[in-house]
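User: Hey, my collaborator sent me this sequence without any context and asked if I could get a structure. I don't really work with proteins. Can you help?
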Amino acid sequence: MNNTTVTVQIAGREYSLTSANTPEHTQRVAALVDRKMRELMAGGIANRESAAVMAALTYAEELIRVQDDNTRLRRKLDEAAHG
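Assistant: No problem. I've predicted the 3D structure and written it out in C-alpha cell form, which is a compact way to encode the shape of the chain:
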C-alpha cells in the first residue's frame, strides 16, 4: 500500500501525517487522540505537552491491559485444545 498524507487537527493544532494506512484510519486515530487530549485539558491539564504525555500514558496502559487479556485468553484456548 502506498503512503498517503492526511492533514488532521489535534488539540487545536494542524498536523500532516504520512501513513501506509487509509486516510480514514489515520483520521480515526487522530480523532481518538484529539478527544483524549481535549478531555484531559478540560479536566485541568493546562498545556498540550502534558496532555499529550497523559494521553500517551493512558493509551499505553490500555494497550498493555489488552495485550495481557489476549495472552490470558490464548493460554485458556491452548489449555482447552490440549486438554
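In plain terms: Residues 4-81 form one domain. You can pass these C-alpha cells on to your collaborator as they are.
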